[in-house]
């Protein structure tokens, strides 16, 4: 049987040194190795916890290093300190002795002794205090392990209180939420089905389609196999409702993979009309097709196409509704992808904005007069969200914002839905940070 801590260290080095994505690196290790359910959970906790608090752990461990240590040694110390500070269930001596064993196995006696000496010293000496950081933005950045540029960006765009809320919320655990497949049955029926399979769940906080999973692995259920639901954050479930596709209509989904919103739109159309789904990556088209198949949907056509060239494939005025769920900086999903806090650079934001702009300009003529264009992102950055939409409107007078969006959103969001746009913040309703704008083509 594989060792969960050793595999967690390997996963962390894959992510932090070799630039792997956390979800991919973790599932690869889990698939490759024989682990108990308990060990899988522990390993996941170690990987996500260490990544989530990486900057804080780094702040704590740095004074204990004299000279240079190997990158994996630093990560091992951080991962062990994470257990000592955040996991009540792990005794300190167990965390330390396991780390020493791993260090010896991986780097011989020298590294074993080094790790032992550093960790023992940490138990004797107080860790540095956050109060020594005088600047409040820098202090929040370290306390919550966010890059300083992001703390400053949010603070400028949304204010200090909101920034604190978001930064802290990003270190909270993520709930699993699922969306009922309305073609199969109702949310109530799904709840009963899951409960009969030993899953504990309750209705979601925001979406009329959502169930919040409190206990049990939903992916292992018959209901999953039979296509009764799709695993999705509640914020994402609001998009298809915002688009409000009519039965028998023709819908274009420009950036579809893995198909969360495509399938929701198709479900709302109750197997009528067609949803044309595209993505720029070949391997991702398979993900869309697999999801469409599992959910039993017959009104989706998924094909490879770069969204910036969709005007070469379709005539102007072709679609009743177009969804641009754009590639974005992902600053709303840091709870799920904590490595982004470490890897994302401000220059990445400019690059992605160019693509968003290009996609919007390309698809603008494809919407029929009177049709709907929904633009959404899983980010919290005004330049990619409301400012992007404003810029689009300035160049496309044939469009205007659709204030009726508010009627298609849950009541709790009415106050923050302004003139056809809504920004959800991490920490508000236990969802991801998310943005939706609804536009109508007038001429
Ligand atoms: C936010 S994700 C889409 C999520 C999807 N709509 C869902 O609900 O499951 C953005 C998608 O855009 C795709 N993408 C990136 N650049 C693209 C482009 N130029 N054309 C089409 N798709 C693109 C990415 O591969 C990614 O799958």
Q: What can you see in these coordinates?
A:
With 443 residues, this protein is an alpha/beta fold. It has four domains: 4-128, Orthogonal Bundle (N-utilizing Substance Protein B Homolog, Chain A); 132-169, no CATH class; 176-231, Alpha-Beta Plaits (2-Layer Sandwich), CATH 3.30.70.1170; 234-441, Vaccinia Virus protein VP39 (Rossmann fold, 3-Layer(aba) Sandwich), CATH 3.40.50.150. Helices cover 47% and strands 15% of the residues. It is built from 18 helices and 13 strands. The protein has helices at 4-16, 22-32, 37-52, 54-61, 71-86, 92-124, 136-144, 148-158, 160-169, 187-196, 222-225, 234-243, 260-268, 282-294, 310-313, 340-343, 346-363, 386-395; strands at 176-180, 200-203, 210-215, 229-231, 250-253, 274-279, 300-304, 319-325, 367-377, 399-401, 417-418, 421-424, 434-441. Strands 5, 6, 7, 8, 9, 10, 11, 12 and 13 form a nine-stranded mixed sheet that branches. Helix 13 (260-268) links the parallel strand 5 (250-253) and strand 6. The longest helix is centred in the N-terminal third of the chain and has 33 residues, at 92-124. The model has no long low-confidence stretch (mean pLDDT 96). Residues 236, 254-261, 278-281, 284, 306-308, 325, 327, 355, 378 line the site of S-adenosylmethionine (SAM).
